[in-house]
Amino acid sequence: CFTGETVSSVRCDCGYQLAEAMRLIQREGRGVIVYLRQEGRGIGLLEKLKAYNLQDMGHDTVDANLLLNHPADARTYGSARAILADLGVDKLRLLTNNTDKIRQLQGHGSSLDIVCHVPMYPRWWGNDTPALLDDSPAAELSYSRHLVLQKNVMAEADLYLKTKAQRMGHMLSLDPTTLPLLRSPAH
User: Fold this and answer.
1) What percentage of residues in the chain have a pLDDT greater than 70?
2) 157 in Cβ contact with 183 (< 8 Å)
3) 177 in helix, strand or coil?
4) Which strand (E) or helix (H) includes residue 85?
């Protein structure tokens, strides 16, 4: 999305997830990124900016969309399923935390076999988890735009991710014993 990938907004994880997906695919040596233009979970840039204003007033990302008369997540993934079919991809490991994405990709008579999902944990959550880290120069370059923010600023991103886990069913562990850097925003 524009706000996450272009201006590195901490109110979404699009920029981080794209950089992480490219890093993981590069490390694996193969993979496909299906890029769908679905700004603001499908509500568009202008409406997403309105939702940001509501978040400034204390609403979380889900309530902000609902207050604007949008669903919490308006995205659909039929075009992604068609793109994967056109590319001949019928079996994959899906980089996502989004249970709805998995359901939609496998639904509607799809023959797509998602053999597993690979969680997309924010890198700043995993300082003690070597599997989540890659300190190679290439990885550092990939992350530099998205993770140069101070940790106190990243608390806002953590709040967004907590909301996605708690209210939208995203598969993110919020256990502070396994993710020691999970912070609460300072208000």
Assistant:
1) 76
2) no
3) coil
4) helix 78-86
Nearest to 33 by CA among 50, 49, 14, 46: 14
How far apart, in whole angstroms, are the C-alpha atoms of residue 17 and residue 95? 9
Sign, Cα dihedral of 172, 174, 180, 182: positive
Distance CA 104, CA 23 (A): 25
Structure tokens at 109: 């008579």
Spatial contact of 39 and 14, defined as CB atoms under 8 Å apart: no
CA distance readout (Å), 63 to 7, 13, 41, 79:
23, 18, 13, 27
Active site (catalytic) residues:
73, 75
* Tens digit of each residue's pLDDT (9 = 90 or more) over 95-150: 999 999 999 999 888 889 999 988 888 776 664 444 444 555 555 554 444 455 55
Using an 8 Å Cβ cutoff, are 24 and 48 in contact?
Answer: no
DSSP class of residue 132 equals: G
The tokens of 69 are what?
């008369």
